[in-house]
Amino acid sequence: MKKIVALLAAALALSCAPAMAQNAVPSAESTAAAKQLMEAINARGLMQASMQQMTAQMPQMLRAMSGGMIETRARGMTPAKKAAAQAELEKMIPAMTASLQKFFADPALFDELERETTAIYARNYTVDEMRELLAFYRSPIGAKMLATMPKVMQESMQTSQKIILPRMGKIVEEMTANLVN
Fold it and tell me: How far apart are CA 81 and CA 98, in angstroms?
């Protein structure tokens, strides 16, 4: 019996090791290398550009997602009520977009994201690996990658939306269909 308890305790301790390792505090050298890497890749600028692109596309995303919900709920509605629901939604979109823009413009948000991202890099890469990455991003192809990343991210986001939103709309319709009936 004692052997079984000891074995279970050892198994539990070993299963918790990866979680503890993730929470381990990176060394000062590792954190410094990660900060250099974040500066070299302009992580803050990339995050800000990504958030701006996301907020710019927010009205279309909200319309696409909410449009499916209105269509599903409109099955029992008169055309006038359906139009009123769409108009009400349309009135809400600018306020929702403005709220999101304000949220994404908060410098404290980017400070926290940058701090956490730096810690993630410091935990997942050795100092030598980060130095190699730094050398890559300072090379011509690395510099090109950094320069084109916002455009690549924007195109990728647009493509993702084109593929994902219609499928999400169907899921939302299926889920909300039961609300109307």
Answer: 27
